Amino acid sequence: MSNKISRRTFLKCTGASAAALGTAALLGGCQSSSNASVEVKVGDKVSNWNNLGVQLTSVFTLTSAPDVPGHEYVAVLVTAVNRSSSVTFNIGAPNIAEINAAYPLDTDAAKAANTAPYFHALSASTTDFAVVCDGADVESGAYISLYDSTTETFTDAPSLPPQRSGYIELVCMVPTGWQQITVTYTPTFVTNKTLTFSLSASDVAKA
Fold this sequence. Notes:
By secondary structure, the protein is α+β, with helices and mostly antiparallel strands. The chain has a single domain (7-206), classed as Immunoglobulin-like, CATH 2.60.40. It is 19% helix and 42% strand. The chain has four helices and 14 strands. The chain has helices at 7-14, 18-24, 96-102, 108-125; strands at 31-32, 37-41, 45-49, 52-64, 71-82, 89-90, 129-133, 136-138, 140-148, 153-157, 159-160, 165-175, 180-185, 194-200. Strands 1-3-4-5-12-9-10 form a seven-stranded mixed sheet. A hairpin with a 4-residue loop joins β9 (140-148) and β10 (153-157). The longest helix is centred in the middle third of the chain and has 18 residues, at 108-125. The chain is globular and about 45 Å long. The two termini are 21 Å apart.
């Protein structure tokens, strides 16, 4: 997703950078668990959960939803590291490249025309994340953003390769004035286990 609703805003607003990704491999000193279910709040780090290390980095508002009045897009940024030496972790929409090609958002005109269909396509393709906002199910879409140190750029991807760090970029469409969001992540690479990300409206200020 080049220059569109998430990456540029994520990296600019949160101060995230290549250096931040470099420290992702050092996630530690906090939870290290393979429990069936682990809850993560903004700022929390999980050093190793079934070979996945995560930190719920930030939450912030992106923009209003153009096709659903009274709603807005809330962005969630999770720093992630794949600690496995051989297994690739599929995370989020498996066809992110095709969605990017079908709904380009590289100009103002394209954003105006394609932001809503892009988001709905991303959400439909994201089956490993379920989001509840103030007790009601809401749409959400996710993918991995990988950093290329050679070109100093970020690339959308459907997976996190072994021993690599990246960002899980999650975008949710929620009613304006929302108070509480719960994100349940059910990975494809383990069975009967979940990560739960708990967010509140006050967390937006932490971005």
